[in-house]
Amino acid sequence: ILQPAVSVGNVGQLATDLVISTLDMTKVGYFYTDCLVPMVGNNPYATAEENSMELSINAEVYSLPSKKLVVLQIRSPFVKNKYRPFCQTLLSWVKSSKCARVVLLSSSHAYHRDDEQLLGTPLRYLLTPDLEKAVGGLMQELNWKEMEKVAAYPGINDTEKVLHIPGGGITKLLFTESCLKGVQMAVLLKFCSEGDNIPDAFALVNYLNEWLQLIKSEVNTSSQWKTPSSWRLLFGNGLPPALF
Fold first, then answer.
1. Domain count of the fold of the chain
2. How many CB atoms lie within 10 A of CB 170?
3. Is residue 160 in a domain?
4. Packing angle, helices 11-22 and 198-212, rounded to 10
5. Is residue 227 part of a domain?
6. Cα separation of 7 and 173, whole Å?
7. Which of 129, 179, 207, 219 has its CA 20 to 30 A from that of 95?
8. How far is 104 from 98, CA to CA, in rounded Å?
9. pTM summary value
10. Running DSSP on this structure, what letter comes out for residue 183?
11. Quick check: is 49 in a domain?
């Protein structure tokens, strides 16, 4: 199961849009929950006038059996104090569906990085202990950087380290709960700032593709991903500045 966190810049949601649109995934259902703000709109992946008026809601499920992939797309923010109930409902669904693993696409405020996090790539990953045993070696081969823990009390006690994902929404809670419940979960995230976050979305989906090889590519570039029609309504022509 691939899904976004509702996080800074909506980067996870935009990256998920690219996956659904590029792989031409089929909508197979809805994820009903009272934890998300209700919303309804037109089909964000419309390809013709005939399907443009199909309705979409705040949490929908897409499937691609050939790749054994299910995507849960979330399109609205969380209701206050509803993070934990949502995580519990989601993980219960994951277990009852006998899902092998969960991949969460997220983001975190760039300005909150400490000195160590400023070095190198702005992309990071996290693995629950159960998934670490399965794919930890591959992450090392890919030369990926694990999300660093930071000082719990900077300047006072720098030895006590904690996981801190500011702007990450449900990311930390969902990851922690997955660790406790034995769910195989990977978090892929990018440090970013609010603004035009299309380039961040392309960077994150390319990062995902390095691991899962959802589309075949010798070199990860933005042009290989199909932008959904809805992006044109929000971002002009739906392309990052480099491709204008």
1. 1
2. 25
3. yes
4. 60
5. no
6. 13
7. 207
8. 17
9. 0.91
10. -
11. no
